[in-house]
């Protein structure tokens, strides 16, 4: 676009058709990277763009006008632009383009063009000089804004990775402990009810053995998404490891936790899991429940109790709920 504006300036203001036509040629060549990008040749597109820009700047400074116009200051666009547009691993391209831009800048700065195609007045040279500096400044602001955005996105991605289980997309073990310790402390302080469920898939090894590990994964993902959709926003559902999951329930007493666990058991047992286009399977889970009491008020003991109840549920035939608290 900037090249197009200069073309119009050469044609309409400075009225030099030859320079305007050469510049129009360059303007059209700037469209090639768009085509290459559409053809998924992103790296080639970027390289083309920067090489073309550097040749164009050299032609402007040493053919159209002289270095008094400051056109060669456009070489400052190359290092920042290349560092933003190329991928992190494209170090060679970034360094090579930056070195080339620096050398060309030095060449233009130290090579006066005594016979430019356009004989510019001092005022016009000054005007072009200012336009070049302004474009450079705008580019620096754009580049820095995009860099900050990129850093923010990366940080967000890292935060998500650090707290999420990669397979199921639910919270991971670390995040569960971090959040639940706080939630439990608050429940104790405010004398509110609090329960945990440990959910373990039944005979999951058989699912893997009969249908393959990928089908096992699909099963974990689909059941987790079913549970996640069913629970309240304030409940925290996380993967403890393997095929064992945990659910912490604020403001939920033992009876309410058992009722929820039984509902989940039923939902899961009746939920057809699609493991490929024409195979559906059903799986079941066993659930151990433990709730906050005066004698049982720390997370480790609550989880231990829920775990014991879970193994009793397994012993009693699976696909069922047992609570550690006597009701
Ligand atoms: N597909 C898949 N399998 C997993 C994953 N994590 C753990 N498993 C499998 O889960 C199975 C758990 O087996 P076991 O501990 O014997 O338990 P189970 O077969 O569910 O039997 P019970 O718990 O007694 O009902 C093992 O075969 C693990 O390989 C996973 O992320 N994906």
From TrEMBL:
- Gene3D superfamilies, A to Z: 3.30.70.270
UniProt protein name: diguanylate cyclase
Q: Which Pfam families match?
A: GGDEF (PF00990)
The source's domain of life comes to: Bacteria
Show the stretches that span the lipid bilayer: 12-36, 48-65, 71-88, 127-148
Question: Which transformation does this protein catalyse, written as a reaction?
Answer: 2 GTP = 3',3'-c-di-GMP + 2 diphosphate
Which UniProt keywords are listed?
Membrane, Transmembrane, Transmembrane helix
Specify the enzyme's EC class, one word. Answer: transferase
EC numbers for this chain: 2.7.7.65
Which PROSITE patterns does this one have? GGDEF
Q: Which InterPro entries match?
A: Diguanylate_Cyclase, GGDEF_dom, Nucleotide_cyclase, Rev_trsase/Diguanyl_cyclase
The UniProt record lists the GGDEF domain at 192-326
């Amino acid at each position: 676009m900037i090249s197009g504006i200069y073309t119009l300036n050469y044609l309409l203001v400075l009225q030099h058709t030859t320079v305007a036509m050469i510049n129009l040629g360059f303007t059209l060549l700037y469209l090639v990277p768009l085509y290459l990008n559409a053809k998924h040749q992103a790296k080639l597109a970027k390289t083309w763009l920067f090489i073309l820009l550097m040749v164009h700047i050299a032609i402007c400074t040493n053919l159209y006008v002289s270095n008094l116009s400051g056109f060669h200051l456009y070489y400052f666009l190359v290092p920042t632009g290349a560092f933003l547009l190329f991928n992190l691993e494209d170090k060679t391209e970034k360094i090579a383009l930056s070195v080339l831009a620096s050398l060309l800048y030095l060449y233009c700065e130290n090579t006066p063009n005594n016979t430019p195609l356009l004989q510019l007045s001092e005022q016009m040279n000054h005007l072009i000089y200012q336009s070049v500096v302004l474009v450079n400044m705008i580019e620096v602001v754009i580049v820095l804004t995009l860099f900050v955005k990129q850093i923010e996105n990366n940080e967000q991605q890292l935060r998500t990775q650090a707290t999420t289980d990669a397979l199921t997309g639910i919270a991971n073990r670390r995040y569960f402990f971090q959040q639940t310790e706080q939630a439990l402390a608050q429940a104790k302080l405010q004398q509110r009810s609090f329960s945990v469920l440990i959910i373990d898939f039944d005979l999951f090894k058989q699912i893997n053995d009969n249908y393959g590990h990928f089908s096992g994964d699909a099963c974990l993902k689909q059941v987790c998404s079913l549970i996640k959709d069913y629970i309240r926003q304030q409940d925290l559902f996380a993967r403890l490891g393997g095929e064992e999951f945990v659910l912490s329930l604020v403001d939920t007493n033992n009876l309410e936790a058992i009722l929820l666990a039984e509902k989940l058991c039923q939902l899961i047992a009746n939920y057809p899991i699609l493991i490929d286009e024409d195979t559906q399977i059903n799986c079941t889970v066993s659930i151990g429940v433990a709730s906050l009491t005066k004698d049982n008020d720390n997370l480790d003991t609550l989880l231990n109790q829920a775990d014991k109840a879970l193994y009793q549920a397994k012993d009693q035939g699976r696909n069922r709920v047992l609570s550690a608290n006597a009701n």
